[in-house]
Design a protein that fits this description.
The longest helix has about 50 residues. The protein has 28 helices and ten strands. It has about 575 residues and is an alpha/beta fold. The chain binds zinc ion.
């Protein structure tokens, strides 16, 4: 009997034997038992995960002499023919080599004829995404009105290349990569049946190398077993696979821990001599440190690491030498090196540089240690900050109060310097009469307010110094409909708002009436910082130095201190003299 490769010899013959795709096989079994099998399926997924195998099992299930059944017997003539690839009713077409419209036209002609023996004609088109657009169009017509005796099963590794018009007429199943655990279990069964002497470690290595493809794993086991006459060591397997042995990875990790760049470089050198791909080695090393980090953080690391129990013990041991932060730093450095290695022809050099960098790194603090240090620093900082803040606040408030006092003093100086006779200018009775008032033009009235403004301020100051201070920030802007607009710069919004109180308004109106004899209303407006005000205040508050000096020198009573009167204004209360 001729030799049959493992992949074919151990190909699943029933749905239950398909590994790692139970989400699909269960659905298909249910469809068969409920007689709800679709007329077209698309099986999408990576290569070697069981797409065509499942398609053949489905074909068998539909045509089994004891079926349709979710568990084809595999011994009837229909099942046997399908297993041997000899059934006339099952047509397997390779989409890659039969991609033209002629092949699909043949298929369409063929579809019309009833199955020769079984219940259904099953068309399995592999790599269906390779068909030409014309072929897809031709196929579409058949898919739109398929004869009842025809089933289509399309397999593809690139479902996104299949036109939506085709996809929308198929039931789609997405096949998954097969887990390392499942592959190892499957390889183990084969090894046992073949009488191979092989460690779990070898099987894990093969499974990892096959990237989720059962077929690839079986092919590799086949190849290795024939090369080693059934007695397979890890070294043999590593060599054949071009893999990096775990020993090297452990040693590279140790060299990083020991700050030993020389031994790291020697190892990289011998790996290069063996023809190992630097990017591949870095990937293995990243995975190695990933496993170490899992050992550090997981309660049950064995469920997260694909390795034998012995290997997990070694990981555990080595992981104790590194902190999580160190591992993350190493993985980060290796990952960024990987990008670089892939872009250059001198792949070995960046790898060596990275290893030198890692072996010569400074000590990487643990996060907990860092947090502790940060905490300490924060505390010592907050001590000084508190101090300086309160110091600054003291200085600030002092500055503010000093500034305030200066402002008040300046204001007092200015107001007091207004010639007394102006504010107490004797008023002609006739001037206060409405008739006389009416004779004045608007402009004349406004002019008079401007010229009397200092006196008005002065009078208000005598009653309520804060109101005068607030008012000083604004300036008379216009007089219309008997309403005097006093404008404030935006920066003096506070002053304006303080003046809105009926008290202040009343005070201002009374002062205006006393000074000019006009019965006006007053409104306050906000504007940009104006220049008029400066001129007015400058003009209005020009006074003699002597007067100022008198004011300055005269000792004030407590209730004359502007800051105190202001405080009284704002907070209320009375002055009690400290005796
Ligand atoms: Zn059968």
């Amino acid at each position: 009997m001729s030799y049959i490769v493992f992949a074919r010899k151990y190909r699943p013959q029933g749905f239950n034997e398909v590994v790692g795709q139970s989400h699909i096989t269960t659905t298909l079994k249910n469809a068969i038992t409920q007689n709800r099998v679709a007329h077209a399926y698309i099986f999408a997924g990576p290569r070697g995960v069981g797409k065509t195998t499942t398609a053949r099992i489905l074909a068998k299930a539909l045509n089994c002499e004891k079926g349709p059944t979710d568990n084809p017997c595999s011994i009837c003539s229909s099942c046997l023919e399908i297993t041997q690839g000899a059934s006339l009713d099952i047509l397997e077409i390779d989409g890659a080599s039969n991609r033209g419209i002629d092949e699909i036209r043949n298929l369409r002609e063929n579809v019309k004829f009833a199955p020769s023996k079984g219940r259904f004609k099953v068309y399995i088109i592999d790599e269906v995404h390779m068909l030409t657009q014309e072929a897809f169009n031709a196929l579409l017509k058949t898919l739109e009105e398929p004869p009842a005796h025809v089933k289509f099963i399309f397999a593809t590794t690139q479902a996104h290349k299949v036109p939506p018009t085709i996809l929308s007429r198929c039931q789609r199943f997405d096949f998954r990569r097969i887990s390392i655990k499942d592959i190892v279990a499957s390889l183990k069964a084969i090894a046992k049946s073949e009488g191979l002497k092989v460690d779990d470690e070898v099987l894990i290595l093969i499974a990892k190398h096959s990237d989720g493809s059962m077929r690839d794993a079986q092919v590799v086991l086949d190849q290795i077993s024939s090369n080693t006459f059934g007695n397979i060591s890890v070294e043999d397997a590593s060599k054949i696979l071009g893999a990096v042995s775990d020993d090297i990875l452990f040693n590279l990790a140790d060299s990083i821990k020991a700050h030993d760049p020389v031994s790291a470089l020697k190892m990289i050198g011998s790996l290069a001599d063996e023809g190992k791909d630097a990017a591949q080695v870095i990937l293995y090393l990243i995975e190695h440190f990933r496993n170490l980090s899992v050992m550090k953080v997981a309660n049950d690391p064995s469920s997260l690491i694909d390795a034998s129990c012995e290997k997990i013990k070694l990981y555990e041991e080595q992981s104790r030498k590194f902190s999580v932060e160190e591992i993350l730093y190493i993985v980060y450095t290796l990952s960024s090196t990987l990008d670089f290695v892939r872009k250059t022809n001198m792949a070995r050099v960046p790898f060596e540089v990275a290893m030198v960098k890692l072996t010569r790194r400074g000590s990487i603090l643990q996060l907990s240690e860092l947090l502790e240090r940060l905490d300490k620093t924060e505390k010592s900082l907050s001590r000084t900050t508190d101090g300086s803040v309160s110091l600054r606040a003291t200085e600030g408030s002092e500055a503010i109060s000093k500034n305030g006092l200066q402002q008040v003093a300046q204001f007092k100086k200015e107001v007091a310097s207004v010639p007394a006779q102006e504010s107490k200018r004797p008023r002609n009775d006739s001037e206060t009469l409405p008739t006389t008032e009416a004779k004045l033009t608007k402009n004349a009235q406004f002019d008079e307010i401007i010229s009397s403004w200092a006196a008005i301020l002065n009078q208000i100051k005598d009653r309520k110094i804060s109101a005068a201070m607030y008012l000083k920030e604004g300036y008379p802007e216009s007089l219309e409909s008997n309403t005097l607009s006093i404008s404030f710069p935006k920066s003096s919004q506070f002053h304006k708002e303080m003046l809105e109180s009926p008290d202040c308004k009343g005070l201002i109106l009374k002062a205006i009436k006393d000074s000019t004899g006009m019965n006006l209303k007053v409104k306050f407006t906000l504007s940009g910082p104006g220049g008029v005000q400066n001129n007015i205040t400058k003009d209005a508050f020009e006074g003699s130095l002597d007067d100022n000096s008198v004011i300055k020198d005269r000792p004030r009573k407590a209730d004359e201190e502007p800051i105190i009167t202001d405080a009284l204004e704002i907070f209320g209360g009375e002055i009690e003299l400290d005796k």
